[in-house]
Amino acid sequence: MHTLDRLPDDILVLVLSALSVQDVLALRSTCRYLYAVSYSPSIWLSLLSHLSLLPLPTTLPSPGQETLERLAISALRLSANWSSPSPVPTECTLIKGARHIDKLELLGEGRWLLALTDGERLSLYDLGSPFPASASSSSTDADAADQQEQEQEPMRGGLSRIFRQPKRVAEYTRSTGRGWHCGFESYLEGEELFVLLSWRNQTDLLRISLSPPPPRRQSQPQRQQFDLLQSFERIRESAPTPTAINGRLLVYPWHSGLLRVVDYRTWEEGSVVTWNPSAGGGVAEGWSREDPLALHLLPQHILVLKPTSLQLFPLPALQISPRLPSHPSASGIGESPRPGPVWHLPFRVDAAVFSRPRLSAKTQEPLSLLMRDVDSWTLVHYRLRPTTTTTTFARPSTSSSPTDTPAPAPAPYHLPPTLITELPELAFAQRDRHNTFALGASGSRGLVQGLSVLRGYTAPWLAAAERELGRPRRRGASPETGTESRRSAQPTSDPALNEILHNTPLRIMEGGNGLSVDEPSGRIAVGEADGDVWVFGFAVGA
Amino acid sequence: MSITLISKEGAQFLVSKPVADRIGVVRDCAYGADFWLGYAVATDDSMGITLANVTSSILSKILVWCEHYKDMEPLVDGDSNMEFPEWDMAYIGHDMNQILFVLEAADYLHIPGLLLLACKGIADVLDGRNPRGICDLLGIVMDFSHRQEVDMDKENGYWRWFLHPT
C-alpha cells in the first residue's frame, strides 16, 4: 500500500505546507513519523504566510517553531473568536485602584498597557507577553516563563492561565494637584517609549526604557522610572487636545489654527499653517473655529483631521527660533510650509481615531480612519492608500541644510481616501460624549463603546479573509465519516458591529473613558466608570 | 522534433519538445548536454530516455498534464491561497493513491508545477478530517504507545478547543 507516511520527509514538508493548520494538527496525531515531520519550522513558516491576510505581529519574540505554531493557531483562533456571535475571552486582567480612567493604550503588540487615571497618575503595566515562547502542553507552559509567578501565585494552572496578574512597571504622578482634561500620546521605538502627557496647565515629555527586567535576586521588585525630559507651558486650556509624537518630533495645536512642531532631540521648532474654512462658510454650527480632532504624524508629513476636512501637510523646516508668520494666511514666507492637499469631508465629524500603521522597511501599510458622522450618526471607515509600496522612512533631514529649502517629499498617502464601510448602527451609542472608539494598528479591528455596550468592529477585508480561511475547500464532496462539521458554523454576515463582552463579567458598563485594542494579540483594554481597567484577550492565552 | 521516453515497464512514449520541456529531468537530459558537448544527446528519435522510477500509467497521466501546459505557464510558486484552475483540480482528482504516485513522480521528474498541484490535491482530500479518518483513509497504523496517545488526545483537544470554541 502506498501511503503518505512512506514519503520522504522533504516532499512531506511540501505536502504539509499546503494543508490548513487544523489538518496539520490532525495529521500530527496519526503516527510517529508524521508527528515528527509536523514540527518542522519551515512548515509553520509557510502556514503563517498563508495567514498573512490576518493581522500578525511584525516582530516575533523568537523565531522558533513553537512560536510560529502558537502564532498561527492564535491568529486563527482570534479570527474565529472575534467575529463570532459570542466571543470567549481566553485571558483576563483586572486592574483596580483608580477612581476614573482618562486614557488607556495597549503598546508593543499588546504586551504593555499605559493608563492615565484620576487625572494625575500615569502607570505602565506589563501584561505579560501574549505570545509566550513555550507552547502546547501544560508542563512546558508552567516551567518556562511564568515560574516566578507560579511561585507567588499558587493558583491552579487553568485559572492562572486565564486570569493574569498585572505588573506595574512604572508610575508617574503629577505633584501639582489634579488636572482635568488630560491625555497622552505615546511612541514606542524598539525598547524606548516616549510619552507626551498633557495636563491642563502643562505638558510633560517622558521617556522610559522597556528593556526586560534583570533577573531578580532580592525579593523586592525592581521598579522602573519615567524620566521627565521636558515640561512645556500649557498647550491648550480646553482639552482634550490632540497631540502627536514620533521618535523625533512632537506636534500640538497652537493659536489661530497653527500647529507647532518641536524636535525634542535638538529643540528646534517650526509651525504648520493648517487650512481653515473662511468664516461662516463651511464651519459647522457650534464650532467657532475648526480645531483639529486628530493628528497623525508621518515621517515627513502630518495628517490633520478637522471636523469638515482632512489635510495633509509636509513638515516644515525646523529652526531654533522660527520666525512665525504674522498672519496664518500669509504664504510666501520661507517658514510657512507648502500647502498640502486638503480633502473636504462630505459630512461633519465629531470623533475620530487614526490607526497606527506599522512602519516596516519593505511595505507601507494603508492608514485607516474611523470617524463618527454627526449628522447622520453613522460610523464611517476610510482608508488611505499609500502612494508607493516602497518608501524609505528616513528621518527628515532638516538640520543639514538650513539655508536651502529641501525638496518636498512626495505625499505618502493618496487623498481622497477610499470609503470602506459606513455603519448606520451607531444608534446604540446615544448622542452622548461617552462614546469612544479604538482602532488597531492596521485598522482591521476596532472597538466602539456606547453608553452600556461595547462592540467589536471587523473591517470588510479581514472579514473576507476570515471567510476564505473558514471555507471548506472541497467542493461537491459528500460528507464522509471522517469529516467534521466544524466548518459549517462560520460567520457569513457582512462586517458589522458585534457584541464583544458577552462572556465576560463586564456586561453592563457605564461609559468609561479608556478603550484600546491590539490586533495581533487580540487584547482589548476597557476602562469602567468606577475606575477599574479590564484587559481581555481573545487569542490563545498562555 | 520529438523525444522518446521509456517507462519502468519499458513502454515507449513519443512526446514533442514543448511537452518534454515541462519535465525537468528530460529537459536537462536532452538539452543540458548541449552546452557541454555542442550537440544534444537525445535529439535522435531512436534514443530514448529511461525513467526507471515511473510506471506507464503514471507517466501517461503526467504527460496529459504536460500536454495541457505545453503552451501555458503552470502555477509554479505561490501560496495556497491561490486557486488552481478547474482543469487542474479535475485532473488531480480525489484518488489519494494516485495523487501520491503523481507526487512522487513529479518530485523524481522535477516538475514543480505538478508537485504543487499534487500537494494541493492531498490537502483537499485531507481537508477537515480528524486523525482517525486520516488513518482509515491512508491505512496508516497508529504507532503511538498508549501513553503518547493519551497525551496526543489531550493536546489535540486543547488546540481544537482553541480553534473552535463551540
- How many angstroms separate the termini of chain A? 42 Å
Biggest pleated-sheet summary of chain B: 3 strands, mixed
By CATH, the superfamily of the domain at 91-128 and 163-211 and 222-276 and 288-317 and 337-388 and 410-445 and 514-537 in chain A comes out as: YVTN repeat-like/Quinoprotein amine dehydrogenase
Into which percent range does the helicity of residues of chain B fall? 55-70%
Given the helix and strand composition of chain B, which structural class is it? mainly alpha
Query: What is the arithmetic mean of pLDDT of chain A?
Result: 73
CATH architecture heading of the largest domain in chain B:
2-Layer Sandwich
In CATH terms, what is the fold-level topology of the largest domain in chain B?
Answer: Potassium Channel Kv1.1, Chain A
Percentage of residues in helical conformation of chain A: 10-25%
End-to-end span of chain B in angstroms?
62 Å
Low-confidence stretches of chain A: 133-157, 280-288, 325-337, 389-406, 473-493
Level-1 CATH class name of the largest domain in chain B:
Alpha Beta
- How are the strands of the largest sheet of chain A arranged? 5-1-29-28-27
Instruction: Note the beta-strand portion of chain A.
Output: 25-35%
Domain F-box (chain A): 1-47
Region (Disordered) (chain A): 134-160, 390-413, 468-497
Biased composition (Low complexity) (chain A): 390-404
Biased composition (Acidic residues) (chain A): 143-152
